C-alpha cells in the first residue's frame, strides 16, 4: 500500500498497529503521510497517537491540536490530547480536554477516571472522589476496579469523606485486589534470639521523607533487635540519613510478587514487619494478608485505617487518633508518647535565613506542599487572609508548578477569590537543598486542609518557619498539629478554619509579630532539638516496647 496516496487506508492500518503499542515504523509512515496530506483528519489523529506512544508528548500535543482543528467533534482526539497533557504534567490542560471528551461521550468511564486523576492533581480532591465514585457505580468491571484502587489512595484527603466511607472504600478495594489469600503456616515464637524487625519501604532513598524513619532505625538496640531493611526502591544510604550498621540486613525486593516476598520473609523468620509505604505503594499492601511475620504493623505513612487483613496494628499518637475514632480502624490502634513523627535531620541543610519581613517591610506567607493538597478549602482560607491583609504576599512552590498551565490555573483560582496575581510568587521543583532554601523567603507557613503537611511541616520548622494549622477532624488533618505540639508551638494550632484565618490576620496586624518571629526563627532548631519533635531515641524505645508487647500478645 502506498501510504501517501491512500491516507484513509493508512489511518485504518495505524489504528490496528498502534493498538498493540508504540511502533517506530508506523510513526515514520504517518509522518510521511501527514507531510503529504496535512489536512487529513485520520492521518493527523494517528500521527498524534503514534507520537504519544513514542513518548514525544510535546509533539503529540501539537498533533492533537491539529487533529482537533480539522475535527473538533473527535472524542479520540480530545481523549488523546488529555493523555498527552497528563504525561507532561499539564493537569489543567488535561482536565479541559477531558471535559470536552466527556461532553461528546458521557459514558466513557476511562475518560472519567483520567479526569478524576487530573482533578486530584489540581487539588480538587472532592470532585475527583465524586468522579471515581460515579465510575464505581456505573462502569464496567475493569474500570470499577481501577477507580476503586485510585479512590482508596486519595479518600482520606477528601473533606467530603467520613471515617466510615474511608474504611468502606479501602475494605472494598483490598477485598477485590487481594482476593482469597491463604495465610502462610503460623510459626512458633522463637526463644533465646534477637527480635527480627523488618521495615518495608519503597522510599529509603528519599532523604526528605525518611527523617522520622532513619531517626528510629539508627537508634535501634542491636543487642536486642536484628534490623532488616526491605527496599522496594532505592537502598537505604548515608545520603538519605541512614547510618549503616554491619549487623543490619538490607533486602532489595523491587518487583518481587507479594507471594514470593511473603515466603522469603517467612523463611527469614521475621518477627515484626513494619509497613512504611501505606497507600503510597498500595499494591504492596497485598503482602500482609499472607501473614509472613508474627506481628505486622503500619507506621509513618498511613493517615487512616488501611482496612487490610493481616495488619495487626497501626501506630499513631494521642494527637492524631482520638479514642472515639478507633472504631473506624480495622487495626488495633497503638500510641506512642509525644509525636509518632519525631524526626532527625541527618543530612546537610541550609542555614536558617533571617526573617524576610524585616528586610521586605511586608509579610510573606507561604506553602511548599504538594499541589494535590491545595484543595478549595485551602485556597478559600488563604484567600480570606490575603483579602484581609492587603500588604501580605504569598509564595507557593511544588513540582506541578513547573508547567505553565498549572501555574495559570492556581493564579486563576486565587484571582477568583480576590487575590491579585501580582501578590503571588510561584516556583516549581528544585533539588532538595535548594528547595529548602525557599523557606528563606517565607515568614509564616500556611498549612493545607484536610491533608496537612507532614514532611512539609517538618522542613518548614527545621528552616525556622512556624506553621499555622488547625485541629482537624481526621488523622490526615492533624499531622501538623502533632509536630507543632511536640515542638512546643501549640499556639500555632487553631481550632478550625475560621480560627485559622482569624489567627493569621491577627498575627499579620500585630506590630510585635516581626520581632517575635525573628526570635522564634533564630532559636527554632535549638527548640526542636531539645524537645519531643526530635526525640528519635524516645520514639525508638517506644516502638521497641510496642513491638515486644505485640509479639507477646500474638504468640
Describe the structure.
The chain has helices spanning 7-18, 24-36, 41-53, 57-70, 75-87, 91-104, 109-121, 125-138, 141-154, 163-178, 211-217, 258-267, 356-360, 376-388, 404-415, 432-437, 455-462, 479-486, 497-509, 513-530, 536-553, and strands at residues 195-201, 225-231, 249-252, 272-275, 295-299, 313-317, 332-336, 364-367, 393-397, 424-427, 444-446, 467-470, 493-494. With 555 residues, it is of the alpha/beta class. It has 3 domains: 7-151, Serine Threonine Protein Phosphatase 5, Tetratricopeptide repeat (Alpha Horseshoe), CATH 1.25.40; 195-342 and 536-553, Rossmann fold (3-Layer(aba) Sandwich); 356-534, Glycogen Phosphorylase B (Rossmann fold, 3-Layer(aba) Sandwich), CATH 3.40.50.2000. Strands 3-2-1-4-5-6-7 form a 7-stranded parallel beta sheet, covered by helices on one side. The longest helix is centred in the last third of the chain and has 18 residues, at 513-530.
Which sheet architecture does the biggest sheet show? 7 strands, parallel
Number of strands: 13
Distance between the termini: 72 Å
CATH homology group of the largest domain: Glycogen Phosphorylase B
Rounded to an integer, what's the Rg over CA atoms? Answer: 26 Å
CATH architecture classification name of the largest domain: 3-Layer(aba) Sandwich
**Inertia-based shape:** globular
What is the tally of helical segments? Answer: 21
By helix and strand content, what is the structural category?
Answer: alpha/beta
Low-confidence stretches: none
Q: What's the CATH topology label of the largest domain? A: Rossmann fold
**Largest sheet: spatial strand order:** 3-2-1-4-5-6-7
Amino acid at each position: 500500500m502506498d501510504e501517501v496516496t491512500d491516507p484513509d487506508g493508512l489511518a485504518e492500518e495505524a489504528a490496528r498497529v498502534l493498538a498493540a503499542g508504540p511502533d517506530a515504523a508506523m510513526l515514520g509512515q504517518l509522518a510521511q503521510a501527514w507531510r503529504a496530506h496535512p489536512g487529513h483528519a485520520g492521518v493527523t489523529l494517528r500521527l498524534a497517537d503514534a507520537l504519544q506512544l513514542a513518548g514525544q508528548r510535546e509533539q503529540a500535543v501539537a498533533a492533537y491540536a491539529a487533529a482537533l482543528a480539522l475535527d473538533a467533534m473527535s472524542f479520540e482526539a480530545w481523549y488523546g490530547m488529555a493523555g498527552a497533557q497528563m504525561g507532561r504534567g499539564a493537569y489543567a490542560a488535561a482536565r479541559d480536554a477531558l471535559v470536552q471528551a466527556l461532553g461528546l461521550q458521557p459514558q466513557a468511564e476511562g475518560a472519567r477516571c483520567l479526569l478524576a486523576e487530573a482533578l486530584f492533581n489540581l487539588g480538587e480532591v472532592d470532585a475527583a472522589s465524586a468522579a471515581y465514585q460515579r465510575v464505581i457505580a456505573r462502569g464496567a468491571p475493569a474500570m470499577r476496579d481501577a477507580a476503586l484502587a485510585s479512590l482508596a489512595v486519595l479518600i482520606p484527603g477528601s473533606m467530603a469523606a467520613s471515617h466510615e466511607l474511608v474504611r468502606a472504600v479501602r475494605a472494598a478495594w483490598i477485598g477485590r485486589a487481594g482476593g482469597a489469600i491463604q495465610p502462610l503456616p503460623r510459626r512458633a515464637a522463637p526463644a533465646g534470639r534477637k527480635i527480627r524487625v523488618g521495615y518495608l519501604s519503597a522510599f529509603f532513598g528519599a532523604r526528605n521523607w525518611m527523617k522520622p524513619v532513619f531517626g528510629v532505625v539508627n537508634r535501634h538496640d542491636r543487642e536486642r533487635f536484628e534490623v532488616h531493611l526491605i527496599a522496594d526502591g532505592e537502598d537505604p544510604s548515608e545520603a538519605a540519613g541512614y547510618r549503616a550498621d554491619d549487623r543490619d540486613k538490607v533486602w532489595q525486593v523491587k518487583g518481587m510478587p507479594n507471594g514470593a516476598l511473603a515466603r522469603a520473609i517467612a523463611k527469614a523468620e521475621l518477627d515484626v514487619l513494619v509497613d512504611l509505604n501505606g497507600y503510597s505503594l498500595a499494591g504492596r499492601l497485598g503482602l500482609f494478608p499472607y501473614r509472613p511475620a508474627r506481628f505486622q504493623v503500619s507506621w509513618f505513612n498511613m493517615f487512616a485505617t488501611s482496612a487490610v487483613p493481616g495488619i495487626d496494628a497501626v501506630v499513631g499518637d494521642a494527637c492524631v487518633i482520638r479514642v472515639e475514632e478507633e472504631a473506624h480502624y480495622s487495626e488495633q490502634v497503638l500510641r506512642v508518647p509525644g509525636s509518632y513523627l519525631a524526626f532527625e535531620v541527618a543530612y546537610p541543610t541550609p542555614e536558617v535565613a533571617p526573617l524576610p519581613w524585616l528586610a521586605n517591610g511586608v509579610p510573606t506567607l507561604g506553602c511548599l506542599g504538594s499541589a494535590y493538597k491545595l484543595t478549595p478549602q485551602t485556597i478559600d482560607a488563604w484567600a480570606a487572609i490575603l483579602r484581609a491583609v492587603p500588604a501580605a504576599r504569598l509564595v507557593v512552590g511544588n513540582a506541578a508548578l513547573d508547567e505553565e498551565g498549572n501555574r495559570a490555573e492556581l493564579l486563576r483560582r486565587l484571582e477568583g477569590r480576590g487575590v491579585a496575581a501580582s501578590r503571588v510568587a510561584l516556583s516549581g521543583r528544585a533539588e532538595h537543598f535548594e528547595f529548602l532554601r525557599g523557606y528563606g523567603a517565607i515568614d509564616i507557613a500556611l498549612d493545607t486542609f484536610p491533608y496537612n503537611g507532614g514532611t512539609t511541616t517538618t522542613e518548614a520548622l527545621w528552616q525556622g518557619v512556624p506553621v499555622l494549622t488547625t485541629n482537624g477532624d481526621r488523622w490526615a488533618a492533624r499531622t501538623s498539629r502533632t509536630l507543632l505540639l511536640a515542638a512546643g508551638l501549640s499556639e500555632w494550632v487553631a481550632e478550625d478554619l475560621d480560627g485559622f484565618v482569624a489567627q493569621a490576620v491577627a498575627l499579620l496586624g500585630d506590630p510585635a509579630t516581626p520581632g517575635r518571629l525573628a526570635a522564634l526563627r533564630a532559636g527554632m532548631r535549638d527548640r526542636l532539638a531539645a524537645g519531643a519533635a526530635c526525640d528519635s531515641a524516645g520514639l525508638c524505645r517506644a516502638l521497641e516496647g510496642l513491638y515486644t508487647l505485640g509479639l507477646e500478645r500474638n504468640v
